[in-house]
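Re: copper (II) ion structure - here you go.
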Amino acid sequence: MTISPVILTLVSILIHSTLQSQNEDDYHTHPCNRECLDDSEPKECKYDFTIEYYYTLTQACYDCPYNITDCLRPHCVSADGVSRAIMTVNRKLPGPSIHVCKGDTVVVNVKNMLEGGEGVSLHWHGVLQEGTPHMDGVTMITQCPIHTHTTFQYRFKANDPGTHFWHAHSGQQRTDGMFGSFVIRRPRSHDASSMFYDEDLPEHTIMLNDWLDQMGAEAFAAGHHAMKDHFPSSILINGRGTVKEFNEMTDHSSHGSHHKDTTLPEDMIMDTLTTTRTMEMTHADHMFDHMMHKRSSEHAEMQSIHNMHNMDTGAHSMSDLDARHTPHALFKVKQGKRYRFRIISNGIANCPIQFSIDHHSLTMISTDGSPFNPILVESFTIFAGERYDFVLTANQHNRNYWIRARGLAECGPEYKSVSQTAFLTYEDAAIVLPPESPDYQSGNRLGLMLNPLNIGPSRGFITVDQLDSLVPDDDVLKPVPDKKFYIAMDFNMVENPYFQNSKYYSLNTMMNRHGHGKHSMHMLSPQLNHISFMVPPSPPLTQHSTIVDDFFCNEETMSDKDCTTEFCQCTHRIKVQLGEVIELVLVDEGKLQNNNHPMHLHGHSFRVVAMEKLNTSTTVEFVKVLDAMGQIKRKLTRAVLKDTVTVPDGGYTIIRFKATNPGFWLFHCHIAFHMAMGMTLVIQVGETHQMPKPPKSFPKCGDWTPESVDDEVVEEFKSCPQLPTSVATSTTTVATTTKALTTVIVLLVCCLLS
Ligand SMILES: [Cu+2]
């Protein structure tokens, strides 16, 4: 009898969720992960996040993937099987999930343990932070970076129900693993979609991300300075997937953490293994076995997996059956029930993902935390930063099905055809692989699709502007907004000193050179209204006095320059008054084909009132003319509410919001590299005196370039400190008298020296 390793994988991860619950900081055991009832008391929900550089398939993984259950051990990040450095929170990928009820207070202590001095901040994507803009977590806009070896506490009310996520908002850290799901539930009686599902389980939250085979900073530098490959090599589903193939017979050793791409010499590996295996068996294995023995039924299941594994490896020589992969994610359902699934995209590159589940249609009910009139589709596309909730009716045969995430654009056939699968497993299904191929092409699900890439409203597709919100109409949908801004988005042909040098390797010179493959040796600049965002030296929200009003710029203040031919960079700001209804007409001019920019607004949700693809490319001037001629139709009833939206390439998306939340709010493309290149601006809502004040002790930072160091010596360091009154008056005991005398002597010495 032979058993495929893939089936072994499947058996092993069937108990995955049980194993996860044994992990000390997993959401399953957190007191805030509870049913949200009408009479639930709000809780204070505390989390400790430790941020570190880490690695995939570390020693914590033991013999993963050869022993597949080892892949499920705490601190084992198996990812797609490719070895690379990562950044993690609590050595998990994705980081810890947060599941709370509306009204809870979320408290997260973030400890930065990144060696090398890199600062961090965490953004709570989808949480509007009304009253607490300084908790929005945007480095150098709402706070200073959290320095290495320091702890910063985020504390805010979970007031915005829905499927959200948290992620680093500094550098490329989000690319390297610093993200996790964040779900705020409310009582079913307050959920407009509750009639459509039976179960809303935390374990049905699916985090998607495209994934590189190297650190984000390395890929960014390779792509932008050397025009080398910086495109995703994989997609992960809840941090799991299969890409790299391992073979016990041909790899260097039989132990997973030392597969063939290791750089250690073989004898050194064997030495290490001999020593570490002894230790492993005496300490950690014992702990793991103890953990597994907690419930005898689980142990029996584990034992049978081990037995099958041994039988399998004993029975075969070098064949396909010896190949091993890191495990897929797995989601369990029971026949006859309707389940709410929550899908989140922590998209990194321009890699929209087509999501589908074989043999199941999806009833789409919500996006970015806001419900809409349900629609039945075969698949949907999710862009970086978006979230979609759907109901899956488990009405098929009891078996296993592929859940598919198929990458498009920079993940598509013109690049590496990147896709990933996970298992949808019916309870009591036989342990048999789905008969369908898990390959890239099979993920191209036909039939009605929601939110297509670069396609306007048309047959076979539903664009988000066609959805009917279940949130009642409001002031935002009045006929004419108070203010309207046109924003041109594109990759522009300007000489950007970050990537070109007019003297040594100018844009013109590089345009005529061709490097690797088809890529031309020049880099275009993704901009908003032909301006690249310059990060200010201090966060304007929390250091008003440092960043004065004329520090900011916009299209008008830059009018003395021709930013269509010359590189323009400044701290781009749109300023609006509190209470105004704002319309943003986002125009993707589309000079670079098949590009796409999902735009995310902090601090406010917006209504999507129009979306159209006009041509392969267009101009903001043309859209202005169309608009002036009344050729752009807006949906001013029940327009869907979102916080992240795509703009068709060569087309427009029009969004509306009411500026009710005073603060400095980032509005940016959610593609990590585009944002790093400055495809962002800040929307100032209200005057600074109208913004909620941060605590007095809130950390500060900024430039320090004094004319003369002497002039800057702070008075308190010069003068003799006052004798503390507690010391001066406490003479009741010998101990306090001695202490007081010591203090006086110290102060006298201090005065003499100063
Ligand atoms: Cu972009």
